[in-house]
What we know:
By secondary structure, the protein is α+β, with helices and mostly antiparallel strands. The chain has helices at residues 3-26, 34-50, 92-104, 148-151, 180-192, 201-209, 214-218, 243-252, 266-280, 298-304, 322-334; strands at residues 74-76, 85-87, 111-118, 121-128, 131-137, 143-145, 169-177, 223-233, 262-265, 288-295, 314-318. It folds into 2 domains: 3-63, Helix Hairpins (Orthogonal Bundle), CATH 1.10.287; 74-328, D-amino Acid Aminotransferase, Chain A, domain 1. Helix content is 39%, strand content 21%. A 5-stranded mixed beta sheet has the order 2-11-10-3-9. Strands 5-4-7-8 form a 4-stranded antiparallel beta sheet. Strand 4 (121-128) and strand 5 form a beta hairpin. It is globular, with a radius of gyration of 20 Å. It binds nicotinamide-adenine-dinucleotide. Nicotinamide-adenine-dinucleotide binds at residues 20-21, 23-24, 30, 32-34, 37-38, 64-65, 83-84, 86, 115, 117-118, 122, 138, 175, 227, 292, 316. This is DNA ligase.
Amino acid sequence: MSDQTVSARLEALRNKINDYNYQYYVLDDPSVPDSEYDRQMQALQALEAQHPELITPDSPSQKVGGEPLGAFEQVEHEVPMLSLDNGFEDEALSAFEKRLQDRLKSSDVLSYSCEPKLDGLAVSILYENGSLVQAATRGDGRVGENITANVRTIGNVPLKLRGEAVPERIEVRGEVFMPRDGFAKLNDAQRQAGLKIFANPRNAAAGSLRQLDSRITAKRPLMFYAYSLGVVAPDSFRLPESHHERLQQLAEWGIPLCPDIATATGAQGCLDYYQQILSRRDALAYDIDGVVFKVDAIALQQQLGFVARAPRWAIAQKFPAQEEITTLLDVEFQV
Length: 335
Ligand code: NAD
């Protein structure tokens, strides 16, 4: 490809992905299945990898999420809320572990926190002296939307942390999602009332959480599971040394965790977890689009650090797209 053709192709891909992002993140109304989005993003990343001199800071490959919606007050995240790198093929996990070992200059087998990749919205919840004071969407990772009134209505989000020994300030990060049974009931009720049917639980969760009237959110069957921490103050507050133990500490304070979180050793342990969750995918109470593996030792996470839009110490291993499977089944049933 000539330089001009490459530039034109990059621009076309970026424009297309920017449109998809706007429809998905801002309007909560995606125009293409996630698998199609992922294909376009991979095409952009591959072309940028071949022509790194043409990467622009505003390329969607360098950015997280979408702009916050103007209707809500804005919240600046003290620690950016990032995305996750994706691995697609089977060898991605061993390649991921090899990259980490190279960077850490050690051949030690690593321990990982293994977590279902819940298909909802990333949310940050701030507690001061144990009380919930603020909740925000991820937005573009730097600035999100203030959705405190809405998050306060979610049944399993504690308004007060349990116990005395809580930090002065602690930011709990996790996913707001709609369990499958609640989603089915909501759509039945919408249908009966002649209202809009939601395309999938993620879409219903996004539409429910970003309501300007929190009384509507309160009627929607939303749930929250925590998966990480943001700001913790004071600096002297002692937290456990591993990600998994930190999550258990959150649970002791009354914060809900996904019951299917586990730990594993090495890439093979992660692959076993992947297979195990994939085989149970249809039986889970909630939608997932893959699993996430995070280096468990916080000291190693700090050593590994971040790239532009994602931590180096975590990877999302996506499952085959459900929309595509559904489309295939539809075709089979028609013939
Ligand atoms: P991502 O979904 O690939 O991964 C990051 C997100 O994973 C986090 O923000 C968090 O919300 C979520 N997550 C769930 N469980 C987690 C856990 N245990 N630990 C950490 N994070 C966890 O990245 P993204 O930037 O949110 O979105 C990109 C994806 O969204 C695309 O790959 C695509 O599937 C979808 N998308 C689709 C369209 C479309 O038009 N269909 C548009 C934009 C994005």
